[in-house]
Structures are given as structure tokens and as C-alpha cells.
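Collaboration report, partner site 2.

Our partner group contributed sequences for two proteins of shared interest, and the home lab folded both. The records are reproduced in the order in which they were received, starting with the first partner submission.
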Amino acid sequence: MKLEGLTVLDLSLFLPGPAATQIMADHGARIIKVENPRAPEPTRSADAFPWQQGDETVMFRNTQRGKESIALDLKTDAGKRALLALAKTVDVVVEAFRPGVAARLGIDYATLSKNNPGLVYCSISAFGQTGPWCNRPAHDTATVAAAGILDVTRSPEGSAGPAIIGVPIADMLASNLALSGILMALLRRQTTGQGDFVDISMFESVLAASPNIMGPVFGGNQAPERLKERTHGGNAMLNVYETADAQYLALGGGEHKFVTALFEGLGKPEFIQAVTGTAGEGHWEAIAFLRDTFRSRSRSEWESWFEGRDICWSPVVSLKEAWNTEHVWQRGMRFQDEQGNDHIGTAVRFLQEPAQIDTYLPPIGAETAQILAELDLTDADRKAILEPLK
């Protein structure tokens, strides 16, 4: 597999770091997850993540598979020495401490790279390692709010306030950029022999995902007027419409061929020219027509009407509906292990050496003794680490 022979030390918790390292595990990397035996990975807890399957939380199962777990208390001398010894042997370290914590623990890039100059060290944080906001605490929703995205995430109909985005967009964007940064640094290491420090900010990951909505800000020095912007509700062909049975459908493409197929199909070709043009006031009459029209039939009736028409659209389905579609199962984005537990598949696909997913889930510290045996440690340190785990 692509990443076979690569060893990653994962010090991160929750989602951004573990999601990135799980992708690496799916593609052959050895992932050693460091857990504090007194406060292990929070997603193991059914109190915090109550939905379980097969005696594990769904969240833990879909962020930690295929990894090894070593239990180390980094506030003890033996635990600290074990981590330093381990860091000499790995290719990558991923951590998601608040800025400054790794340095206080003596496990920051500057320290670890002295004995491992080829080390690629990735830090994931809310606002980055520098700058006036670096010490602000924040999780996904707060960083999305700070990036201006919650303000533009509103219903295209009515005057509802900001809506919480249905997926942890900052976490997952940061996770994917962390993976990209790590792989780029590893590629550079092949020619230079030198590792690198990768600084990933959840906030900046969201900012970087915004080029298609920055016109008003960069071009006009103003916040977007929602119903005049193409992706915020001002385009008839990029909009959400209610149906007669209180369901919804989404139009998702404004190319001329889609506009023509829709309005000719609905017997309103006079809207084609306006809707093909710039979003905003010129679309409003067509939007009002579509709102009234789509409310005249049920979602299933509209699904039948759209069948075979060259129009970019989809019903707005529930999460359950989406994950039960034939397409999701056939593409392997949902699969079951031998015990019948569900897993999210990998979205990174290769023709050569595709992923070989290992659904093993490590108990807390399950591989501690094995990993310690590989390290240059004293018997006293090994005993000090292992004794409390018995």
C-alpha cells in the first residue's frame, strides 16, 4: 500500500488529527496512538458519544480503526522518556494541543527534531501557532463563526438566523489539509532528508475554503447581501425549495443547459434569459415561481418529473436515507465488518495499491508492552509504565 513502512505517532484527540491518521492507516501506515491512561481518547466514552455499535461508540470506530494504542502518562518521567525514545523512531508526529502545551511538555518540534531531523511534525489548532488569536479556545462551530461562514449559512427563504452547519467542517477541512501538508513534507524529505513543521489552523482551513464567496469582500469591500449572491440564495438554480409534503429539493447547477431544461420543462421559457444571468434581483421572479411550483407536488412526484431530465438537482434526503443508498454501498463508503458493525469507507481511492482497511480497534494501551519492547528504555522505565496498567 502507498504508505506502508511509514510510522506515525498520533498524540491528537477527538476528530481532526485522528481522522487524518485514520486515512493514513487505511493506506498502510503504522499509527501509534498515545493515550493518557488516566484520561484516554474521549470518543471512547459512551457518556460523551452515546451512540454505540458492537460495544464501541460509532465515533471511536470511525476515527481510530487500524491503530495501535500505547498508554503513557507524559507527566511522569518514565512516560516522558518513553515518548522521547519513540519519537526518535517515527516519521510523523501529529498533535492537537493548544499552542505552547507541547513545548511545556518538552515534546515540541524543536525538541523532537534534534534527535530525528527527518521528522515531519504536524500541529493542528483552532487558530494556528502564532498571531493574536492563537491562545483562544475554540472547537469547530466557533472557528466557523469566526471565519464568517455561519453568518452566510442561512435559509434562502425567510429571515432565519445563522444555522449550525450539519458536519464539522472546520475539523474535517483541517484534517484533510493536515494530511496534505504531511504528505508534501514527506515528499520534500525524500530529496532533502529534512523533515518539517506543519502548522494547521482550523480557522484558516475554513478561510481557505471560501474563494467562491469572496467577491463582495475583495471586490466591493462589503459583506455579501445574501439574496443577491449565487450561492447564498440569490440564484434560482442554486437554491432549496419546499415540496407539497413538507419535504425539500435542491437545485445545484446554473449552466445554461440546466436552466433551459428546467424552465422549458415547466413551460416557462421566458425565465431562461434572466436566470442564466447574474444572481440577484433578476432571479427573484423566477425564484418566486419555483417556490410556488414546487409546493404544488410531493417530493416523490417531483422525483418522477426530474427523472431523465438533464438538470442538476437532488432531493434533500435525511442522513439515514443518504447512507442507505445503493451508490454509497456499491462505492464502499459504507461497509460492515465480520461482526456486522458499520464503518465509513475511505474517500481516497487508487487504481494501484488501493486501501486495505483494518477494522481492528485498540483497547486502551493494548500495544504498550509490545511498543516499549522496541524502544531503548531501561527495565525500570518499562516497569514504571506497565505496572499501573495491570
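Second partner submission, folded after the first:
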Amino acid sequence: MTRACIVGWAHTPFGKLDDPDVESLMARVSGEALAHAGVGPEDVDGIYVGVMNNGFSKQGFEAAQVALDHPALAYVPATRVENACGTGSAALYTALDFIESGRGRVALVVGAEKMTAKPVVETSDILLSASYRKEEADIDGGFAGVFGRIAQNYFQRYGDRSEELAHISAKNHRNGVANPYAQMRRDFGFEFCNVVSDKNPYVAAPLRRTDCSLISDGAAALVVADEETAERLQQAIAFRTRQHVNDILPLSRRDPTAFAGARMAWDKARAGAGITLDDLDFVETHDCFTIAELIEYEAMGLAAPGEGYRVVREGIAQKDGRLPINPSGGLKSKGHPVGATGVSMHVMACLQLMNQAGDMQIPDAKLAGVFNMGGAAVANYVSILERRK
């Protein structure tokens, strides 16, 4: 079976953007990604679009919109996928399946979301659809409330880890200062993140504003190609392995503090890549809320259940630590336009592996882990990436 490589990418800034809609956001990155890869529209065999939408816009059928700004793509098969906050990775993995099946040689992957045009109350309701509404629709605080409940359960079982969450937030905001694409390029410091105040109130206790990712607009794109095609191009980032594991949707039917699906995805990824965590140079992980990053430390195997706090206290995840986590600033600093996030995380990893990450750069980075999840750790995607050329 042929293997697929990432051969080009593009990324808009994340934040409250002037772009009026998803169509315009996708237009900004589609052509740029193709140019970066050194391929033309005539070389593209398939287009895969990740947009959650679900009420952010009345306009659907986003797959067909890529060709509106690039008419040469008008007759290329195009498909839109959605998998909550894992939508971007779902689009990428679908494109990889397309290439590795031999059905095509080059695919364009675009992830985008326009979230800021809606009032916050509407946005919260739209995002709540990534939970199980039959049981969780009345949780105060919307999706932040879902993770607030997860944090409450975690604290009840393992002790109050509010300080550790503040350290995670401070770390990611500090890292994000160096990210030119980040929505919030500001080092807030631990004390600000740790204290409840008028500027940092509870959103869904025990989660404060600094524990929650941002509502964002943005887009990112990747070009993937088979190995033979990649050999002729300027850059190639290969997948040592990739894994997708789902978990059951309702929180009531699983241990919400365990992220069992994420743990299984990481276990399979390490086995498939033939590595341990010590072989990784950094990880980009899904810190939609700081409690998620804390539990992900345990799911990826950095700490035993309930002992993720040790990763924080020992500085393991710091940029100069044993395994830097989110040197890009993560979703906390970079922002979280849902459909774009999974694609963006892979772009951040590619920049590091190509030694093109500027002030974000992890020295001599050769092997990267990427973890993107949909919902409250329901759809779990783990990629292990390495530079091929």
C-alpha cells in the first residue's frame, strides 16, 4: 500500500476576522497551499473539506465552495466531513485514505470555521451539539459546562488541581506569544490565570476564562500526495502512523475523567510507530479546556491516572521540558475555529519538523505527536509525523 505525505500547507491568522464567511476563509488558504506544495489545480484528484457549521451559517455544502475562488477545481470530486472538534483531522484522514487506496495521487484538505458572527449565546448552543443533547442539553455554561463537569468529577476523585490548570494556561499563552497565527499573543502569567477576578471570572466552575479556548474564525489547508509524487516535491512530512478511535458519546456511559478512547488511540499509535513517548520531540494536543490537556497527559502515558499534576509540577510539558506540549500555544492561545483546528495542528507540526517554526521552534525536532479530539474525547485522532525530505 502506498503511503501519503503532507507536501504543502497554508494557514490564516486565527481570531475575529473580517472575512465574511467560510467561503472566503477557504479561498485564502486553498491556492496558497497548492502553491506551497508546488502543484497546480490540474494535479488535484480530490478535495476534502472540514467545516462543522451546524448553525454558524445557513449556507451548507461547503465542499463545493472551494472551487468558487479556484475555477480550475470545479470538476474535482469534493467532499465535506464533520466530526465535532475533530472535523479537521477527519477531513485529513479521509484524504489520506483516498491517496493510500490508490484512487488519487494528490488531495487538497481544507479546514475552516466562521464562529464570531454569531452572538455568544448562539455559539454556545451550536457547540453544545458536540455533546449528547438528550442528557447534557441543560448543563449550565454550554460546552464549557460539559468540561466544567468533567473537571468537577476529576477534582472530586483526585483533588483540586486548579493551580495545575492555571500553569497549563500560562504555559500555552506564553508559548503563543511566538505564534504569528495565534489569536491571543499575550503572556498572562500564572498569577493572573490562577486568580478568579473580574477579568478572569468563572465560566463554568471550576473552569475560569483562562481555562477555556477562544471563539475564533480561521482556516488552514494541507496538500497530501502519494510517496512517488512527494519525492518530486520540495518538502514531505510522512505519517509514521495515524490512529482514530471513538468513544461512547454520553458522559453518563463512560468515565469522563479517563479519556479511554484517547488512551487507546495513543497506545495504538505508539505501537504502530514502534516508539515510546521518549522518542517524541514535541506534541501538539487538544487543549480546548485546560482540564482536557491535564487528562491528556494521562491518556498519552506521561502520568498515571490522577497524576497528571506531576507533569505540570516537574515542568515536563514546558517548551524546554522533556516533552514540550503545545509549543504553538495550543487552542488556548491560537484559538479554536472548530473545522480548522485539526488541520492547523498538523500545520504547526509540519513547521516544526521543517525547522520553519521561527520563535516557536523546538531545536532539532524530528518526530512529532498530534492529538485532536471531537466532542469530550469522543472522536480521538493521533498522528505521529516525521520529516521525509
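Feedback sent to the partner group on the second submission included the following. Residues 4-118+215-230 form a domain with the Peroxisomal Thiolase; Chain A, domain 1 fold (CATH 3.40.47.10). The first helix runs from residue 22 to 37.
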